[in-house]
Design a protein that fits this description.
The chain has about 325 residues and is mostly helical. It folds into two domains: about 230 residues, Ferritin, core subunit, four-helix bundle (Ferritin, Up-down Bundle), CATH 1.20.1260.10; about 45 residues, no CATH class. The chain contains 13 helices and no strands. Helix 1 runs parallel beside helix 4, helix 6 packs antiparallel against helix 7 and helix 6 runs parallel beside helix 8. The chain is globular, with a radius of gyration of 21 Å. The structure holds fe (ii) ion (2 copies). One fe (ii) ion binds next to helix 4 and helix 7. One fe (ii) ion binds next to helix 6 and helix 7.
Length: about 325
């Protein structure tokens, strides 16, 4: 039986397990304007980072397999660790614990009304919101413990985004191209709405950091639009690259070098011609290449690449 593409993720999470927060917890806390707003904001994220992950672990076991389920268990443990660090921060900022918040209830309902794909899409939304939030949080208040916690959580969250992206890519690959496009579009719209709501809900923290709500929403939307858009290796896979994959890569290439996601009417013809030409050349290249290396499996290679990237980023940040 082929090894699970999630072996690399299991190794990734196991290597990071137990790495505690390196923060100067004894450093004195200095009262500054905005402390109470920050404490309330921290309490909401502390609640969001909590949760036992029982449902996703069950779905992971049933729909993907034991290795993925074990990786998910370690991912949930990392989130629980974030919740503990946020408790430390919230107490440092003299904030009250909350047991419920409407934003958390909405996320739970959305996650629990579908299968694994829905769960991953909602989780990914929370992860990329977290990428924007912890960056802003670090700027909102000058405190060494806050800075160290944000820095460490950001490294973990980047790993989580890559981990879920691997699963999402696998789930989307099973869908027909029009349905896949519609699902991604719907998800990006959901991210856009969520980012605006979170920006408003945490507007005082954004203001302390000198970040506008529009900037927060724009940066968060940017993370979502980068997702599942990378140009990937297409050679020497079993099954071989399809026409759709070659064309999708060509489209990404033309988008990248032109700087247009969707060209204007004046540029549409030149844009389409370029996509056709790049797809044509790419197809010829894939047909002409020869190798004695064994054919590769897409899922395993994509998972390896993401785990390598996450590990590299974690090492760079250490
Ligand atoms: Fe987290
Ligand atoms: Fe996360």
């Amino acid at each position: 039986m082929a090894a699970s593409p999630y072996c690399v993720w299991l190794e990734y999470f196991e290597r990071r397990r137990g790495v505690e927060l390196d923060a100067p917890l004894q450093a004195p806390f200095l009262e500054r304007p905005g402390r109470a707003a920050l404490a309330r904001s921290l309490a909401r994220f502390e609640l969001g980072e909590s949760g036992d992950g029982a449902r996703i672990r069950g779905l992971a076991e049933r729909e993907v397999g034991a290795t993925y389920a074990r990786a998910v268990k370690l991912f949930v443990a990392e989130e629980a660790q974030h919740a503990r660090w946020l408790t430390i921060l919230r107490e440092r900022f003299a904030g009250e614990r909350i047991d419920s918040h409407w934003s958390d209830r909405v996320f739970v309902v959305l996650r629990h009304t579908g299968g694994l794909r829905r769960e991953i899409l909602v989780l990914l939304t929370a992860e990329i919101i977290a990428l924007s939030y912890y960056r802003v949080l670090a700027l909102a208040y000058d405190d060494p413990v806050l800075s160290a916690a944000c820095e460490r959580i950001l490294v973990d969250e980047r790993g989580h985004v890559a981990f879920h992206e691997a699963t999402l890519g696998r789930e989307l690959a099973r869908m027909a191209p029009p349905a896949r496009g519609a699902a991604l579009l719907a998800w990006r719209s959901f991210v856009a709405v969520t980012a605006s709501v979170v920006a408003f809900d945490h507007r005082k923290v954004l203001a302390l950091a000198g970040v506008t709500q529009a900037q927060f929403a724009r940066v968060t939307r940017g993370y979502a639009s980068d997702m599942c858009r990378n140009i990937r290796t297409l050679y020497n896979f079993e099954p071989p690259a399809t026409e759709d994959e070659v064309r999708a890569a060509a489209l990404q290439y033309v988008r990248k070098i032109s700087g247009f996601t969707k060209p204007s009417a004046a540029n549409a013809e030149a844009f389409e011609q370029a996509v056709d030409a790049v797809a044509d050349v790419s197809r010829h290249l894939l047909d002409a290449l020869v190798t004695s290396a064994p054919q590769k499996d897409r899922e395993t290679e994509a998972a390896k690449a993401r785990a390598r990237r996450a590990a590299r980023e974690a090492a760079e940040a250490a």
